[in-house]
Amino acid sequence: MQLQSFDNDQQNFRLLEVDPAHLRIDSTQDVTPMSEYQKLITTGVLRGDEHQTRIIQQLQDLHDDLINYNPPRIPEMPQTNSLLSRLFTREVQIPTSPPETAPKGLYLYGDVGTGKTMLMDLFYKTLPSSITRKRRVHFHAFMIDVHKRVHAAKIAMGLNGGDPILPVARDLANEACVLCFDEFQVTDIADAMILRRLLESMVNFGVVCVMTSNRHPDDLYKNGIQRSSFVPAIDLLKSQFDVTDLDSGTDYRRIPRALSHVYYDPLTPENASEINKVFKSLTSRDISDPPIHKRILNTWGRTIEVPESTSKIAKFRFHDLCGQPLSAADYLEVTKNFGTVFVLDVPKMGMDSKDMTKLFITSEVPIYKVFSDDDSSASSKPASDHMRSVMDDLLLNEDEKGLTDQVVGTSSMFTGEEEVFAFARACSRLVQMGSKEWAETAGHA
């Protein structure tokens, strides 16, 4: 199979369920999450959904609380950890609890395609004008940034050492008093150990967070190594955030739309020729930016070779992306540089390519880390009706009736609950990406 993949937001690396043009809001008007949501329904962009309306009301309440919120001053941290600095610098009072005036954050979880990202973006775009320090980021991109900051903080502290999390949390709080995370998840022990301290410190500095996730806090980092050390972060999410679900049972990415020729299947010389014609057509529009071969991207001290690309459009073979030892940071670097990505020669993946299959279903854009074959995970738990309906689209069992609970629970291809979630999410987005509506708007800021 050949496919074209577009990134609709080069900074946040996400796919919206709604044409982003419809979320452009006139900053000269007094807008709120509820008023904009109702406008989208009135104009026919969205259809009414009682579950989404309930969430919008919570976002509206948080919006109202933020109008009069005055974030506390972030304390200055000593520039060095030397003996002289400790002797002549007044001791800094670090807050040990959230400010009394800070509104609770919102943790929004639910199945794929139910509109969590769209609602959070609506909230972010209608934040009160008094909130000038704000940030909206995909969670995985956020953690890559955090790891870089922690590394830099350790270097700055030198041999004397110290806690690198506190200055990182302080800097993040200085940059944004409202922080919106998309697709919050924890699958890595390094992330888990950092997040426990980081979330607590940011909340104590007065940062108000809105998060979307496929998981209830109690299910985060399930069966993870040293999970007991992460439990305080779960308790923090449940005590300092309003935890609410958006399980409407409707995957809005899968609502029937006119199909566009985004996928070219099967792998034939004719289809290869057609997709190359599309690539040539798009890359020949700007004669000052012709395609070049073997462009080099640099990230984290490594190089990524792009087989053929202009400054905005790239073409890879599937093996180049999923058959190589690349990390999430590498894929983020690709999507940061190119608004349109062509992926050629996507094979039919079976048990002989299990690692490649895992990497593909957990990627989309950005790519997530490959989940381990942990037999202790709840692989025997039946898939939800919603996830099973998504899987049925691919007609994967022998009778071509879809993926049954038994197949999901016993197949060695899906050995963990995280993989089942990732598979459902990948199916949902692949269906969405096949629509004409998506293809016409993707790749444009």
Question: Which key features would you list for this structure?
Answer:
445 residues; six-stranded mixed β-sheet
3D structure, described in words:
This protein is of the alpha/beta class and 445 residues long. The chain has 16 helices and 11 strands. A 6-stranded mixed beta sheet has the order 7-1-11-10-9-8, sandwiched between helices. A 5-stranded parallel beta sheet has the order 3-4-5-2-6. The radius of gyration is 23 Å and the shape is globular. It starts with a strand and ends with a helix.
List the helices and strands and how they pair.
Elements: E1 2-6, H1 33-42, H2 50-67, H3 83-88, E2 105-109, H4 116-125, E3 134-138, H5 139-157, H6 165-175, E4 178-182, H7 189-204, E5 208-213, H8 231-240, E6 241-245, E7 263-264, H9 269-283, E8 292-299, E9 302-309, E10 313-317, H10 318-322, H11 328-337, E11 340-344, H12 354-361, H13 385-392, H14 405-410, H15 417-433, H16 436-441
Parallel strand pairs: 2-5, 2-6, 3-4, 4-5, 10-11
Antiparallel strand pairs: 1-7, 1-11, 8-9, 9-10
Helix pairs in contact: 2-4, 6-7, 7-8, 13-15
Fraction of residues in β-strands: 5-15%
Approximate shape: globular
Largest sheet: 6 strands, mixed
**Average pLDDT level:** 76
Q: Which bin fits the share of residues in helices? A: 25-40%
